[in-house]
Amino acid sequence: MKGILLIFVIVFSSIWCFGRELKPLATYEASLQSYYQSAWKAGREEFKDLNRKPFWDYVPDVGFGWGLPIINWRLSNIFQYRRDRFLMDRRLKSLDMKMELEMNQQLQAIGIEYEKLLLEQERIKVAQEKYTIEAAIYAIGVECCEKRECTPEQCRKKDLERFEASERIRVMRINYDIMVLELEKMAHFGMKNVLLKN
């Protein structure tokens, strides 16, 4: 009887513990914000050179015509310069707004997935409490089988019920671990920063 209870405690303790550790929500949010900060910098880098056109592209043209110096001052140069600056500012502002919107949407999605994981933890705890009760009933059944008060079919049925109960919890744990991995993927958690070489 003591040997069976020892086996029960070992099996039960392996079912009870959580597989993957769920970190605080702030950790996942910080990881996502770091990812979007890097993506934002990379997106702005594209416009860095375009933003700095040389000023001499807009200065008046100087030349000679019929032996005299000619200066062509076109008002269109000034308008073109202002227009280019305006468009570049708009593009950068649009990029900033898009990145902020996308990041906030992802932060909201991570928050929702995190809440789902907390609810799943509660569901697993309830299932484990039920398993504790089923294990106590199983221990009584084992005693019955040892004293030969039950038929072999009843003993095997008790074994099957105990196995099915432990398997339900294992499947719930595996699903929970998969949900944690998906959350980490959404948050770009633990993403390596490997640089490309030319």
Task: Describe this entry's structure for a reader.
β1 (61-65) and β2 form a beta hairpin. The chain has helices at residues 2-16, 25-45, 48-51, 75-146, 152-186, and strands at 61-65, 68-72. The protein is mostly helical.
Spell out the blueprint of helices and strands.
Layout: H1 2-16, H2 25-45, H3 48-51, E1 61-65, E2 68-72, H4 75-146, H5 152-186
Antiparallel strand pairs: 1-2
Helix pairs in contact: 1-4, 2-4, 4-5
Number of strands: 2
> Level of helix content?
over 70%
Distance between the termini: 69 Å
* Rounded mean pLDDT score: 82
Sum up the structure in keywords.
198 residues; mainly alpha; two-stranded antiparallel ribbon; 74% helix; 5% strand; disordered N terminus
In short:
By secondary structure, the chain is mainly alpha-helical. The protein has helices at 2-16, 25-45, 48-51, 75-146, 152-186, and strands at residues 61-65, 68-72. The longest helix has 72 residues, at 75-146.
